[in-house]
Design goal:
- It is a single chain.
- The protein is mainly alpha-helical.
- The protein has two domains: about 90 residues, Orthogonal Bundle (Endonuclease Iii, domain 2), CATH 1.10.1670.10; about 100 residues, Hypothetical protein, domain 2 (Endonuclease III, domain 1).
- It is built from eleven helices and no strands.
- Helix 9 packs across helix 11.
- It is elongated.
Length: about 220
């Protein structure tokens, strides 16, 4: 291992500890009860805030309490219920189709491999990693806008390509810590290291951030 790689590993270890102190209970902000509900909430969250999704899903999950109900939903009615989340036509189509595929292809269960998750309509690597980490407790790297911004500011990657960032983080994060690390980046990105103006003066991980003040 090169000296640079050794230093990066040490930096990441310290960063993990500091973020654990700041955010001891990292959880996904999307609210759900059943495994597939997280899958559908994640689809709704594309180009939409988690807060807005959480306003919509209680009524949605009450109206469609089972996968069978989602699979047989009147798509126009589903569109109306999720309209405020944006891109409602594509999202409604994907949710209904994903429900059908879960029933016919996966015995009603959310699959536990990246390959199978990516077969589901509307599911990309970000959502697939979320399901792997939160539902199946497997190593996962969820690359969202916060992860892209913070991992660049902190010098963990030099790319803005989600797949490249995922691979870069997998190479330096302990697998057992990767999912929680990404959740903590989201919490830190919302509370301190915001997109418009990072609060470096009030940041408890600033000692291991080598891109202070960069608005990446």
């Amino acid at each position: 291992m090169t000296r640079q790689a050794t230093l990066l590993k040490a930096k990441v270890k310290k960063l993990i500890l500091l973020l654990e102190e700041c955010y001891p209970s990292p959880v996904c902000a999307l609210e759900y009860g059943k495994d597939y509900e997280l899958l559908f909430a994640a689809r709704l969250s594309a180009q939409c805030t988690d807060a807005r999704v959480n306003m919509v899903t209680p009524a949605l999950f009450e109206r469609y309490p089972t996968l069978e109900a989602f699979a047989g939903a009147d798509v126009s009615e589903l569109e109306e219920m999720i309209h405020s989340c944006g891109f409602f036509r594509a999202k409604a189509k994907d949710i209904a189709a994903a429900a059908s595929m879960l029933l016919t292809g996966f015995s009603g269960r959310v699959p536990d491999t990246m390959e199978d998750l990516l077969k589901l309509p509307g599911v990309g690597r970000k959502t697939a990693n979320l399901m792997l980490g939160d539902i199946h407790k497997k190593p996962a790297v969820v690359v969202d806008t916060h992860c892209i911004r913070l991992s660049n500011r902190m010098g963990l990657t030099g790319s803005v390509d989600p797949l490249r960032i995922e691979n870069d983080l997998r190479a330096i994060l302990p697998p057992e810590s990767s999912s929680d690390f990404c959740h903590r980046l989201v919490l830190h990105g919302r509370a301190v290291c915001t997109a418009r103006k990072p609060d470096c003066g009030g940041c408890r991980v600033v000692e291991v951030c080598d891109r202070i003040g960069v608005t990446a």
